[in-house]
Write a structure and sequence with these properties.
two-stranded antiparallel ribbon, seven-stranded antiparallel sheet, alpha+beta
Length: 205
């Protein structure tokens, strides 16, 4: 018999982090969990067209709102990442960013190895295709949902995450009360999975 839970999930009980953005996690304010879409097709019949499942699914963007620290460290982390992908001034902006990220902590390396093993163990559908030239621009995102005891209840792993937009709230001298500056970042990613489900299936430890 499958286990069930009668407890509800708190919407303010979570931890979000990105391996490449260590200064961001503490300042997270709001995470918009991405929607999942699956296409459909229409089967023509003499009476009416019948909807049938399509052949591709896709994910909406992952959006995050965060408080900007007073030194703009967390904002500039994201800005430098986007600059490296676009290198608007010269090609060395990409090269310098990659060189600065060569050395990662052991936990991040192990997590990336786990993602690779997961891909290798997938057997349904076409294999995931990763282009090596882009690998240094990706990162891993981790969203942990916490239970009533503030313990991890479920862990979502976002694979090959990268930012596509970064917006800062207007600053103003006309506000009557002290307000903290917020920013919003939008991420794209290849796919996500639930870590506990993968472990239960024995795909990796």
């Amino acid at each position: 018999m499958e286990s069930i839970s009668i407890n509800r999930l708190f919407n303010n009980g979570y931890i979000f982090r990105v391996d490449r953005l260590p200064k961001l996690s503490y300042h997270c304010q709001d995470v918009q969990f991405p929607a999942v879409f699956f296409g459909d097709a229409s089967l023509a019949t003499p009476l009416q067209n019948t909807p049938v499942p399509g052949d591709k699914m896709f994910y909406d963007s992952l959006k995050l709102e965060f408080s900007v620290d007073d030194k703009l460290f967390n904002y500039k982390e994201l800005y430098k990442w986007i600059i490296a992908m676009g290198f608007p001034q010269d090609n060395t902006q990409y090269e310098n960013f990659i060189q600065g990220k060569r050395i990662q902590n052991e936990a991040a390396r192990n997590a990336n190895d786990a993602d690779t093993r997961l891909r290798q163990n997938q057997t349904n559908g076409p294999p995931n295709i990763s282009i090596d030239v882009f690998q240094n621009l990706y990162s891993r995102g981790v969203l942990q949902f916490l239970d009533a005891n503030k313990l991890p209840a479920s862990t979502v792993i976002f694979v090959d995450l990268f930012p596509v937009s970064l917006t800062m709230q207007n600053v103003s001298s006309t506000v009557g009360e002290v307000a903290y500056t917020q920013a919003v970042v939008e991420f794209k990613f290849q796919h996500y999975y639930y870590l506990e489900d993968v472990r239960a299936a024995g795909e990796f430890n």
